[in-house]
Write a structure and sequence with these properties.
By secondary structure, the chain is α+β, with helices and mostly antiparallel strands. Helix content is about 55%, strand content about 15%. Helix 4 crosses helix 5 and helix 4 packs antiparallel against helix 6. The protein is rod-shaped.
Amino acid sequence: MALTNEEILDAIANMTVQQAADLVKAMEEKFGVSAAAPVAVAAGPAAPAAEEQTEFAVSLDSFDAAKKIAVIKVVKAALGVGLGDAKALVEGAPKVLKEGMSKADADKLIADLKEAGGVASKK
């Protein structure tokens, strides 16, 4: 006659810690499995996965003074601001130029600024 799941659980519940550990080891050997993962999961909730950042801010950190005009042109075109505002943003470096950008757009702006003579970073 086969034991029911409840009978098996009752038998395990009445074991000492050492007897339960020996049973687990015997089951691992007999069935070629490891109880390590289920034990770790049973120990507590898993840590939440880190969310991938989807929005970025681009900051102009510095620029080559000899290429200031080229950097101003890139800022003006990228942000759609007037010449005076673009000049003020560049001269105010280090300064966040634009927030809420996609990764691709942020990377493109950083590359454009670098090509013009600026040093930019993504946050």
